[in-house]
Amino acid sequence: MASTIVVSEIRKWYGDTHAVDGVSFEVEEGEFFGILGPNGAGKTTTLEIIEGLRKPDSGNVTLLGMPAWPRNQQLLPRIGVQLQASSFFERLTAREQIRTFASLYGIPGTEADKMLDVVGLADKAETRTDRLSGGQTQRLAIATALVHGPEVLFLDEPTAALDPQARRNLWDLLREINAQGRTVVLTTHHLDEAELLCDRVAIMDHGKILELGPPATLVRGLDAPTRIGVETGMLSVDEARRLFPGADVATDEVSLIISTREPASVLSQLADRNALRGLAVRGASLEDVFLNLTGREYRA
Amino acid sequence: MTTTQARPAPVTPAPSAPQTGGWLTKLLSLASAMFRGFRRDRAALFFTLLFPLVFLIIFGGLFGNQGATPQKVLEIGSVPLIDQLPAADRAELDKVLEITKTDDRAGALDKVRNGDDAGAIEQSGNTVVLHFSAANATVSGALQGVLSSFVQSANVAATGQPPRFTLDTQQVEDKSLDYIQFITPGLLGWAIALGATFGAAATLVTWRQKKILRRLRLAPVGIPTIISARVVFTIGVALIQLVIFVAVATSLFHLKLTHYWWMSIPLVVCGTLSFMAIGLLAGARAKSSEAASAIANLITIPMAFLSGSFFPITLAPRWLQILAEVFPLRHLNDGMLDVMVRGKGPASVLPEMGILLGFTVVISAIAAVIFRWEEI
User: Fold this and answer.
1) Are B155 and B110 in contact (CB under 8 A)?
2) Which of the pair, A52 or B93, is modelled with greater confidence?
3) Which residue in B has a C-alpha nearest to residue A119's C-alpha?
4) Angle between the B179-209 and B328-340 helix axes, to the nearest 10 degrees?
5) Which of A134, A271, A290, B59 is 20 to 30 Å apart from A278, CA to CA?
6) What's chain A look like in SS3?
7) Looking at residue B17, what is its pLDDT?
8) What pLDDT digit, counting tens, does each position of B150-164 carry?
9) Do the chains contact at A168 and B36, CB–CB below 8 Å?
10) Could B20 and A150 be called an inter-chain contact, meaning their C-beta atoms sit closer than 8 Å?
């Protein structure tokens, strides 16, 4: 069976800027796919081309076996798009919003009300959307994208500006949606989110895909050293450098950090010296992969 | 689990075949979303419904009863010319003058000087003296006219001869025609222009900014359906304005509608379409609702003045009257005057309706060409 989404060699210029510069990938049915990248990497433009909102300057996208451009009335009921949290009609309640969107898909109001239950907003049905919290607004936005039971769901930075509780709550909801067999494509710059949720991620920068694969594979492929930290004073810097010649040693007032590719031997020697107070071991994460690929300099 | 919120219930399975409803259901659903939003928008309610009514009440109150309120006049000592009038003539005089007797001559003159009373009258022998203030020229003029006519009639009566000439004045319109008859259609036209233009401009910009336009593009709903929903909503608001305006003008200011007043309904529909087109033009590319409002103001303010909404355009120089023809409000006001108060037949406003619809087509076409879905 063909992939749910096939993106081949899409390019998009804005003046002289290559917003998207030859991007290709496929997303399988039921997959949770993430597009990661710094601001201006071309994530959103890529997503908009896949959704059929923009025409690529070259290349093409096949969505559920049909071309994504031009706007296709057959395709639209089968995809759900969650836009930024503010994309609601003015001064309507949560129930009125979801019922209005549902009616555009021919879904009766009572069905729409059930979707408020799904996202845990049943008790906020009569509240106007401008009075909902950030997390509630995001869940309503996802509910409006899901109300017609789409096969593919697109989410553009769904957890931006949410507090940690609201983010975790939303992750549970997204996992559940994916577990029902729906394909989910999400853009984010929260790396922990991508690592936790996505089956595969594409890391983008300057309009190109730099790496693509399951988060764990990308992290392993980085071959980054493990960072072992103990309380400062457990061991002098000189002694640490003498003991672990292959490792990189650094210190500050709080911790002594040993970056090594042989964590087992370092840990056992620290244990022998009874120097494990304040121990913290951190392996490479998707964040290291990301920073390694996209650089550390700040981009506004 | 670290969350405190209720656990989500399972998502309902996707329907096997994509469903799409009829366009009419979608249209009505969108129009009702717009209407609910409007009903809860106090600022919009004020500007489309109450604000123009305030103007109607001010204009109606200022000019509606012109000449009907008697002017306050003081009678110093005894004025036999007034005191000895036959009862019927005296009643006639009391309609225009509210006469108070006083013996304090200096105090009376002070009151006239301060503007508390329009004038003071005294009589010595056969000379009637009217004291007036130049500060209130119009009222003083009217007062002099009234008094001199009474003095003339008294002179005629003193000769014992019946008067040879009489003057009878007749208005060309219905006898009941008042200032309110002219100002109601004009202000109503202005109110409709205000509501439709600003509503369309602001909504278009806000919907683009908030990405509602984009959300609608992703739903299986045609652009004609979205625009028709807006048209239904805007015409609905305009007809509410029509009903409220006519109700207030007839009950408070004795507006009398002529036989074919109901022709104002199709006229208002055509006018609303043309104002909506102006609003769409203002909002087609504007980046903020402030910018869209500024453009809408730039069009509606001169349009209201040149279309005879506040004063008759016939007072303006010829070239300005010709220029005013480019504004749809000019034609709407003209048409509404014809059928609401001038008593013309239904067919008389067909040219106006045609002009308004033609205007709509041209302006909408320009708006469609420069329109942008997204801000870039």
Assistant:
1) no
2) A52
3) B8
4) 140
5) A290
6) CCCCEEEEEEEEEECCEEEEEEEEEEECCCCEEEEECCCCCCHHHHHHHHHCCCCCCEEEEEECCEECCCCCCCCHHHEEEECCCCCCCCCCEHHHHHHHHHHHCCCCHHHHHHHHHHCCCHHHCCCEHHHCCHHHHHHHHHHHHHCCCCCEEEEECCCCCCCHHHHHHHHHHHHHHHHCCCEEEEEECCHHHHHHHCCEEEEEECCEEEEEECHHHHHHHHCCCEEEEEECCCCCHHHHHHHCCCCEEEECCCEEEEEECCHHHHHHHHHHCCCCCCCEEECCCHHHHHHHHHCCCCCC
7) 44
8) 788 888 877 877 777
9) no
10) no
Q: Is the Cβ pair B29, A105 closer than 8 Å?
A: no
User: How far apart, in whole angstroms, are the C-alpha atoms of residue A214 and residue A33?
Assistant: 9
> What's the token pair of residue B62?
């200022």
pLDDT of residue B252: 85
Cβ-defined contact of B214 to A106 (cutoff 8 Å): no
Please give the Cα distance from A86 to A72 (Å, whole number): 25
Q: What are the mean pLDDT values of chain A's consecutive 10-residue runs (300 residues total)?
A: 88 89 95 90 91 92 92 90 81 95 92 90 93 90 91 90 83 92 91 90 92 89 85 87 88 88 89 89 82 72
Q: What ipTM was assigned to the predicted interfaces of this complex?
A: 0.80
Handedness of CA B341, B347, B348, B352 (dihedral sign): positive
- Which residues are within 8 A (CB) of A6 and not within 5 positions of it... i.e. 6 or more apart? A26, A61, A62
Q: Which residues contact A248 (CB under 8 A, 6 or more apart)?
A: A225, A258, A259, A260
Report the candidate in B320, B149, B343, B191 with the shortest Cα–Cα distance to residue B263.
B343
User: CA B140 → CA A44, B66, B145, B150, B154, distances in Å?
Assistant: 76, 15, 9, 15, 21
Q: Which of A87, A107, A173 has the CB atom closest to B210's CB atom?
A: A87
Global confidence as pTM: 0.76
User: What's the farthest any 2 CA atoms get from each other in chain A?
Assistant: 73
How large is the C-alpha radius of gyration of chain B?
30
* Whether B3 contacts chain A with CB within 8 A: yes
Question: Least CB-CB distance to A91: which of B8, B19, B37?
Answer: B37
C-beta neighbour count of A50 within 10 angstroms: 28
**Residue A200 identity (one-letter amino acid):** R
Residue B92 above 80 pLDDT? Answer: no
CA distance linking residue B370 with residue A132, whole number of Å: 36
Residue labelled with tokens 């923009």: A54
